[in-house]
Design goal:
It contains seven helices and six strands; from the N terminus they run E-H-E-H-H-E-H-E-E-H-H-E-H. The strands form two sheets. A four-stranded parallel sheet has the order 3-2-1-6, sandwiched between helices. The protein has a two-stranded antiparallel ribbon with strand order 4-5. A hairpin with a 2-residue loop joins strand 4 and strand 5.
């Protein structure tokens, strides 16, 4: 095993664990671990999916279990994205991740279409073909607010931390697609 870099400029591989499937989580952790054998970096795991997924689509999601798996695979830090989004929504302007205190960006990375991710996520979560088919129970306005905050959080991570790569299970919908698009906007490879 390669020696992990240390210090404030030590790079990260960010791994997404914001899916219900243990199979996908283990796949992304394995791929991130393999990448780290070629490019030594600390591992930052993202847990905590948007409440719309937890409450409407999936039967369960256990952030603690996914965080424990991440640590077993060598994660040096775990970030609960839903908790950070909620804190920023409540007025927080700084987040702490892996010893870095980072100011929350004003918005999404340049060129990232947040509205696309809001609509795609709303349609998937509501399980309807068109936004005209959604109702008050789908709470599209709250999803839009959380998605805009999530875009700002991802912009903060990928523009202000030394990220080597993002390993993700999906590249669409708000919680995954915004991470992938933001990483790409900052020339961070997405696997």
């Amino acid at each position: 095993h390669a020696t992990l870099p240390e210090g404030p400029e030590a790079p990260f591989v960010v791994v997404d664990l914001m899916m219900q499937s243990p199979r996908l989580a283990l796949r992304t952790l394995t791929l991130a671990g393999l990448l780290r054998t070629f490019r030594p970096a600390r591992l930052l795991a993202l847990v905590g999916p948007d409440p719309a997924w937890r409450n409407r689509v999936w039967q369960y999601y256990d952030s603690d279990r996914f965080a424990a798996w991440a640590r077993a695979f060598g994660a040096t830090d775990v970030l609960d994205v839903a908790a950070v989004v909620a804190a920023v929504g409540d007025g927080g302007r700084r987040i702490t991740v892996a010893g870095h205190e980072v100011a929350v960006a004003a918005g999404a990375a340049p060129g990232v279409d947040v509205d696309h991710h809001v609509e795609a996520t709303l349609l998937r979560v509501a399980r309807v073909p068109s936004t005209t088919d959604t109702g008050p129970e789908d709470d599209g306005a709250a999803l839009a607010i959380r998605t805009r905050i999530m875009a700002a959080v991802y912009e903060s991570l990928f523009s202000r931390l030394p990220v080597e790569a993002l390993v993700t299970s999906h590249v669409d919908y708000a919680q995954w697609g915004l991470a992938a698009r933001t990483a790409t906007a900052h020339d961070v490879p997405v696997l």
